[in-house]
Design a protein that fits this description.
The protein is an alpha+beta fold. It is built from 8 helices and 14 strands. Bound molecules: ligand DP6.
């Protein structure tokens, strides 16, 4: 498929008014997206667990303007309050997707959005937020158009969400979503995420992700700037090759359920992501001392308990603690006893692998 396939040819009718709503989850990458080309094309393929608890709920009320003009017209409410400061990001998103949703300037939009996780928790809200909004817009298109398949719907939503934030394109479906062309995954695309198309071992059913909120402050360097710094990065091409290689190896692990290999790929990905930050120009560090303390405690406990608990990291200080359902009665007490003390105000979120967005 190409970008052109997402430009609608005609609409049956543009409704006078209506309301649409979706909840859409966050996701946690196992193979990390870090580095991109123009138009939000990833420099390497990535794959993520869709989450279940961390999500954004968004509704869009639309009302046809008396006269179409050349402006986007919208109001934005976050957790019930008008949020002027979020509007520029939404406007940029609307501009990027207008060619694919040419009706947007026909309407005045009232967008109401809220998260199930604390806003300044350091949990990326862009993945769940942008995907929820893309779903609402696509639901509008569906109601104006001749019927199209669920597959097309999901692909176009993911395509649109990607233009808002790259990782958002992996939040529509679940439990595993792959984004970015790679030889080892049939049907993979740089334009949208696809539900992982192969059989996944049952050990990954209900996999847990306990998110430890180590630092809730504003990050010193945004992901967008971090991606930018992969241009001209001394290790960029090796890193991109490594991501392809990891993805191929992870494919075997997802099929045979070998958790030892799962751990070594996932932890290496997390540390490589941060190694890229530490070796860029300018360099920066997003981990905090408590991030490292948690990692060391996990390694010590894993050795002693012979369990398969491991960690991954986002572009921040928080730690995602991953473990299988059949080890939760050993691992969760360890988390409570040994790791929560490293969290800011003792805060953490119990999440697990999920199935994707839902219509409200
Ligand atoms: C470290 O999707 O937030 O979480 O496309 O600029 O919005 P933009 O970046 P974003 O980057 C996420 C980076 C990551 C890894 C990942 O989720 O794959």
């Amino acid at each position: 498929m190409s970008e052109k396939d997402f430009i609608p040819v005609s609409f049956i009718t543009l409704k006078e008014k209506g309301v649409v709503g979706y909840s859409s989850p966050s996701n946690i990458a196992l193979i990390k997206y870090w580095g991109k080309r123009d138009n939000q094309i990833p420099a390497n393929p990535s794959i993520s667990f869709t989450l279940a608890a961390c999500m954004t709920k968004t509704s869009v009320e639309y009302q046809k303007k008396a006269q179409k003009n050349d402006e986007f017209s919208f109001e934005l409410f976050f957790e019930g309050e008008a949020k002027e400061e979020f509007k520029p990001k939404i406007k940029t998103f609307l501009k990027r997707i207008e060619v694919y949703l040419p009706f947007l300037k026909d309407y005045h939009l009232v967008i109401r959005t809220s998260n199930t996780f604390p806003h300044s928790s350091g949990i990326a809200s862009s993945a769940s937020g942008m995907s929820a909004l893309a779903l609402c817009f696509m639901e509008m298109e569906r109601s104006f158009s001749a019927p199209f398949t669920d597959e097309f719907f999901n692909r176009k939503v993911s395509f649109l969400a990607r233009l808002g934030s790259g990782s958002a394109c992996r939040s529509i479906e679940g439990p595993l979503v792959q984004w970015g062309e790679t030889a080892s995954v049939k049907g993979s695309s740089n334009l949208f995420g696809i539900k992982y198309p192969y059989k996944v071992h049952k050990v990954f059913n209900n996999f847990h992700d306990t998110i430890l909120l180590v630092d809730k402050g504003e990050k010193q360097v945004s992901s967008t700037v971090g991606h930018e710094l992969m241009h001209g990065h001394p290790f960029a091409s090796q890193r991109f090759d490594q991501a392809h290689d990891h993805l191929e190896k992870l494919g075997l692990v997802l099929a045979d359920g070998n958790l030892k290999d799962f751990i070594s790929i996932v932890e290496s990905e997390a540390l490589t992501l941060h190694a890229m930050m530490m070796t860029s120009n300018p360099y920066f560090i997003l981990m905090k001392p408590n991030t490292l303390s948690i990692i060391n405690e996990i390694w010590k406990f894993r050795e002693e308990s012979k369990t398969h608990v491991c960690f991954t990291l986002d572009a921040g200080a928080n730690v995602h603690v991953l473990y299988p359902e059949n080890e939760k009665d050993i691992v969760f007490p360890f988390i409570k006893e040994k790791l929560i003390s490293f969290c800011q105000n003792g805060q953490y979120i119990c999440d697990r692998i999920g199935l994707g967005a839902k219509k409200l």
